[in-house]
C-alpha cells in the first residue's frame, strides 16, 4: 500500500499500519495519537505517516518515502 503509519516505541518495537488513501492514513493517525495517554506518547520515539516511494511490500525500500504528517520524530513532538 502507498501510505504507511509508523509507530516506534523507544524499546525498539516498530508497528506499521498501511492505508490505501492519504485521507484514511491521516485520519487514523490523528485519532490514534490523540487517544494515547501522556505516558504512551512519552515512550514513543517516532509516530508519523509516510507516502511510500515503493508500494511493493516485499521491497527493501518500502518504508522509505516522503512525510505526510508527523506527531513525533526522533523523540521530539512536532
A few lines on this structure:
With 78 residues, the protein is of the alpha+beta class.
Task: Give an overview of the whole structure.
The protein has one domain (about 5-75). Helix content is about 25%, strand content about 40%. The chain has helices at about 20-35, 40; strands at about 5-10, 15-20, 45-50, 65-75, 75. The chain is globular. The protein starts with a strand and ends with a strand.
Query: Major sheet, described briefly?
Result: 5 strands, antiparallel
How many structural domains in the coordinates? 1
Unreliable residue stretches: none
Radius of gyration: 12 Å
Structural class: alpha+beta
Q: Give the percentage of residues in beta strands.
A: 35-45%
Give the helix level as a range of percent: 10-25%
User: In DSSP terms, counting alpha (H) and pi (I) runs of 4 or more, how many helices?
Assistant: 2
Q: Which strand order does the major sheet show?
A: 2-1-3-4-5
Question: How many beta-strand runs?
Answer: 5
The pLDDT mean sits at 94
- State the end-to-end CA separation: 25 Å
SSE pattern:
EEHHEEE
Oligomer: single chain
- What would the principal axes of the Cα set say about the shape? globular
Amino acid at each position: 500500500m502507498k501510505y504507511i503509519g509508523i509507530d516506534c516505541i523507544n524499546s525498539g518495537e516498530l508497528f506499521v499500519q498501511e492505508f490505501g488513501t492519504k485521507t484514511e492514513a491521516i485520519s487514523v493517525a490523528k485519532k490514534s495519537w490523540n487517544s494515547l495517554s501522556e505516558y504512551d506518547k512519552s515512550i514513543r520515539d517516532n509516530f508519523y505517516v509516510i507516502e511510500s516511494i515503493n508500494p511493493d511490500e516485499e521491497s527493501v525500500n518500502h518504508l522509505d518515502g516522503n512525510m505526510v504528517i508527523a506527531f513525533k520524530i526522533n523523540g521530539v513532538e512536532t
